[in-house]
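<amino_acid_chain>
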Amino acid sequence: MAAVYSIDLIAKRDRKKKMDSSIVKCWNVHYQTLEEVEEEARLKKQKEREEREKAQRQERDDDDDGEAEEVHLKLDESTYNRKTGSYSGNYGKQPVRNENDKQKISAILGEKPDAYSAALLAIKEQADLAADELLAELN
């Protein structure tokens, strides 16, 4: 007659594996003291507050620049474009104040003359060749 087990051997082995892998070993546990927990929470709150303040400062700076330009633009109603709903007539008429924007503009404008002069030179050469061919045909 076969032996009757209340739990089969496979289930027993699986249970032992599960228990062995789920037991927390004491050398892997770091118990934090109350002071450590409080210090960590304080540092986290301070970091969040600094990030919030930085975001608010950035937002204020952006708003200040936008408000100053908007007030100046709205004073001159003659440049208001009803079709677009903007004061596009003032675009580019005021000096650039932001240093990053100045650098970007000078870099872009610095690239353009080379390409522009090369294109003009190519067009001039083509026009000269066409003129020469016309003169040759006429003679």
User: Anything to note?
Assistant: The chain has a mean pLDDT of 77. The first helix runs from residue 9 to 22. Residues 20 and 52 are 46 Å apart (CA to CA). The chain is about 70% helix and 0% strand.
